Amino acid sequence: MSVLQRMLSAIGLSVCVSVSHAEITIGVDISQTGPAAAIGAQSSNAFALWPKTLGGQPARYIVLDDATDVSQAVKNFRKLTSENKVDAIVGPNITPAALAGLDVLQETGTPMIALAASAAIVQPANDAKRRWAFKLPQNDALMAGAIVEDMRRRNIKTVGFIGFADSYGEGWSKEFVAAAAGNPKIVATESFQRSDQSVAGQVLKLISAKPDAILIAGSGTPAALPQKTLAQRGYKGLIYQTHGIGTLEFLKVGGKDVEGTLFPTGPGVVARELPDSHEAKKVALAFTDQYEAKYGPNTMTQFAGDAMGAWMLLDSAVARALKSGQTPGTPGFRAALRDEIEKTRGLIVPNGVLNISEQDHQGFDERARVMATIKDGKFSYAPSK
């Protein structure tokens, strides 16, 4: 039994096979290629560590690549639900794809645990489509609040913003404006495409506004482009990023230009540096040890932690759904599984503590966020001062 499995057993999650039921089938849609491949790779690494059971029963995982393409993600959703009759879907890891898949969830009555960040995926939770949607990454509002609090502690008065020109960047812009509420004052706002090769024009406009700090709302390696351009143009203020940068590829692409970056992240990313009092430390550290034993030191990321969190959430909910008497692979079981995911309370996963409800299909609170920085090419804990 692995370190993580012993930990799961200790906190009451099932790791052994009990009463015989039909096999649980989980579909996974992830970006293994395309612009979001770096994010998908971290999730895929965690998928390889998923136990072969869910709720104590045999589980089968069907993994499909959406190539960071929204239309392909929808095709994958339809294949997984119509041909494979999956009991739930994990993924996608980009917001536009998760939003596009909502229609399929409603039509087929299939629960989804998305690995993308935007709150728009799950809000409002009572929406006919979104009642089937859940997600592991922290809501933008929770993480934007952490950034604003850090900025205020550092006496930052003005800030510039540049984000993806899609639902991820737009969502972050909305939540950051609401969290800041004029303190700090946003003095310039720009956007860019994930596939852009240059953001020189946007960066010059940001610098001309002379902000004390700049927030970049992007994810994966594309989020490095504005920061590298800011460095090349001589910007000396603080630079913040979102929790979407948590990939090893971002560190490689950014190099010395991203040293000192400040960003909010799940506790799992910096598990070894957390105070022992942090409620998620024990579970986060158990998974970090397992993950890095396979992939090497300092390889743990937000996306890996979210992917293992998805398995832990399913494992807990499947065990309860099986008591409904419904058979896996049927509409009745999918509905029962959806209901049990929604009833999850007090479940500790690598990136926080989940308390999901009818009103909240994400379920994290402040225990799911810490401030971090990039130091010596690694993600490092940056506790509040």
TrEMBL record:
Cited Pfam families: Peripla_BP_6
Superkingdom classification of source: Bacteria
Domain (Leucine-binding protein): residue spans on this chain: 23-373
This protein's UniProt keywords: Signal
Cited InterPro entries: BCAA_transport, Leu-bd, Peripla_BP_I
Signal peptide: 1-22
Assigned protein family: Belongs to the leucine-binding protein family.
Protein's name according to its UniProt entry: ABC transporter substrate-binding protein
